[in-house]
Amino acid sequence: MDPTQKAFKIPGVQIQQLIPQMGGCFASDRIMVDGLLVGYMYRDEPYNDVDSGWRFLSGDESQDYMDDPDHLGIYAVNTVCNYAPAIIPYLDSPPGSAFGRIGDTDKFQSE
């Protein structure tokens, strides 16, 4: 699906600058379209100068879901922060870091 055709949970005009620019990331439509919380996040080595290395998932995506590239998008990390401000304290973590949400809290634990 063309990303311009997605019905994002937060309209672009409502996105606020919450963090300094840190590049792009991958996030699933379960977060960006369906509005679920980030349940799992990890940081890979960046692919290039504009990739932060961060990947954000709700945690309930199946392998079939993830295998469909239409279910993922590339976004500014700041955009994902607007959906999930609870991730902000973890963004300085180095590549190789992974975190899972602790229950219904805004806290994450290292995985």
Automatic annotation (TrEMBL):
Residue ranges annotated for the Immunity protein Imm33 domain, each copy included: 25-108
Cross-referenced InterPro entries: Imm33_dom
Domain of life of the organism encoding this protein: Bacteria
Pfam families tied to this protein: Imm33 (PF09951)
Record's protein name: Immunity protein Imm33 domain-containing protein
Organism of derivation: Brevifollis gellanilyticus
Phylogenetic classification of the source organism: Bacteria, Pseudomonadati, Verrucomicrobiota, Verrucomicrobiia, Verrucomicrobiales
